Amino acid sequence: MIDQNKENEKLIVIAEKLISLRKKVGLNSFLVPINFEEEREKFFDSPHYEPQFTYRTKQIPENIEDEIAQVKIDIVHLQIHPQLNLHLQNYIIDLEMLLGALRSIGTETFTDYACDLFSEELEDATREHFLDSEFKFENEEKGELHDAYQIKKAFEKELEFYNLKNYSIQIVANGPIIVAGPSRIILGEDIRRYSNNVRRLIIHEVESHAIQEYNIENALSPFLSLIPYAKMRLWSEGLAVFNEVHTNTITRSSYLNYTKRFEAVKMMNNSFREIFDYLNESLHEKEAYKIAFRVKRGLSDTSRPGGFPKDIAYAMGYLKVKRYVEKGNSRSFLYRIPEPEFGVLLKSLNLLPEDPIVLPKFIG
């Protein structure tokens, strides 16, 4: 007779090991070229120049394949539900694709790994359109213009309201960027936003990403993070965009930005210049360059086909969350675990923590 408690203890050890391995193959920080500013200047100085990016050296543990192989063996000897076993197997495949993508940054094979990570989403994107005539847009320039330090203060006020301890806001000298991570939101010191757009950012970054990340961390369960790379971003970004739409804080420029990111991914096999020229028809050149870069990052020679399709998550994720809610499901479940299908499986196996969670005021 199987001792399920002992099997669950082994499962927790395996889950923690998988999360540890995932942290060793993080992609995002290595996809920023060390010559980004130099190549941007060359691009705008010449009407035909295609950026040639150089990336910093990746430090990958030499024995990481052995560690992954050992986890595979451990799973084989584990007596668990078949669906959960399949999920773990798929997670390991995703982990190996991330490792392949990390190792191939700047090479011709990078795109193959990157597209494998988002294969399902890319296939769906050929049939989808991100247009929604029901969107209500906020005025673009409404209220006071805020700099990065004022935005930081507004974000910190919201974090304090929700009592999100150990979550912080950091300002860095890397242009007008906003990045939400597991324990902090990073703001580029050059960012400027009007009051209504600051409110939209609070919805997206604090009341979507930060609260969701806080709930996962506070639950102290490794299972909540065992979600493949693309699915995690799809549901997380989809929730954030859906919340913007639901609260009527989405601006016309933000909607256009999400739409153009979606279209740029579809154009990934075009050159950087071709993508930029298309985007520049409806966007300012700085925004057009940023979106083209986001799609072509990971390549050295950006005139070549391919790139990084991560930005498909905003539009495709929005559609996924929208359909999820339209079926009568609650958004609050997505604040407990980002990927609902896996959450339902964990709940059926009594592996989903039922502790109280933080919810944004427009839900709770």
Brief write-up:
A hairpin with a 3-residue loop joins strand 3 and strand 4.
Number of helices: 14
Uncertain spans: none
By helix and strand content, what is the structural category? mainly alpha
Along the chain, the helix and strand elements come as HHHHHHEHEEEEHHHHHHH
Strand order of the largest sheet: 2-4-3
Overall spatial form: globular
Distance between the termini: 44 Å
Secondary structure elements and pairings:
Blueprint: H1 4-24, H2 36-45, H3 64-76, H4 82-103, H5 110-117, H6 119-125, E1 145-147, H7 148-161, E2 168-172, E3 178-180, E4 184-188, E5 192-194, H8 195-218, H9 229-246, H10 252-266, H11 272-280, H12 285-296, H13 312-326, H14 340-348
Parallel strand pairs: 2-4
Antiparallel strand pairs: 1-5, 3-4
Helix pairs in contact: 1-3, 4-5, 7-8, 8-9, 9-13, 10-12, 10-13, 11-12
Walk me through the structure.
The chain is mainly alpha-helical. The protein has a domain at 26-59 and 104-137 and 227-348. The protein is 54% helix and 5% strand. The chain has 14 helices and 5 strands. The chain has helices spanning 4-24, 36-45, 64-76, 82-103, 110-117, 119-125, 148-161, 195-218, 229-246, 252-266, 272-280, 285-296, 312-326, 340-348; strands at 145-147, 168-172, 178-180, 184-188, 192-194. The strands form 2 sheets. Strands 2-4-3 form a 3-stranded mixed beta sheet, covered by helices on one side. Strands 1-5 form a two-stranded antiparallel ribbon. β3 and β4 form a beta hairpin. The protein starts with a helix and ends in a 16-residue tail after the last helix.
